[in-house]
Design brief:
The protein has a four-stranded antiparallel sheet with strand order 1-2-4-3. The chain is globular. By secondary structure, the protein is an alpha+beta fold.
Length: 196
Amino acid sequence: MSLVLDPAAQDLLFREARTANSFTDEPVTDEQVKAIYDLVKYGPTSMNQSPLRVTLVRSPEARERLVQLMAEGNQPKTAAAPLVAILSADNEFHEELPQLFPHFPQAKDLFFGERSAREGSAALNAALQAAYFIIGVRAAGLAAGPMTGLDFAGVQKEFLDDDHTPLMVVNIGKPGPDAWFPRSPRLAYDDVVTTV
């Protein structure tokens, strides 16, 4: 059985897409980011919790503070990217559940009254949304450079608060010269899928 999605779109989103390591200086607009969000917000999360939060780092001062918190090898990429996003999990996502999951408003207190339950669920579901976000960046014709080589505690202290846990930093823009490393191997279907 073949996929319904056009092969060119499959290539754009998956087969030809890579983590970008360099970018042109073409800006990424707020309109582009809004279009990305308006697409990826429909991705499923458990009980529609939608805990992902995106902090766009646009000012030169904020960019410099963030660059200092990146691993040494990631600093030049983050310094040069047209736009950088900090993706985080909102550990207080449950406050939005009465609006986001209206057919079961008791879920807020029944399942997520304890902070530890919220943190685990927020991390899992925000990571899922982060993957949608990366696909959305690709769908916009841009390249994404997601990175976890950073000082997480420093990013939280400098850009977030105690209710938001950073997941990754994503450099965003049009790919520049030599943006891609060679494609790394992938596991075969039979190495991943088991039928029981």
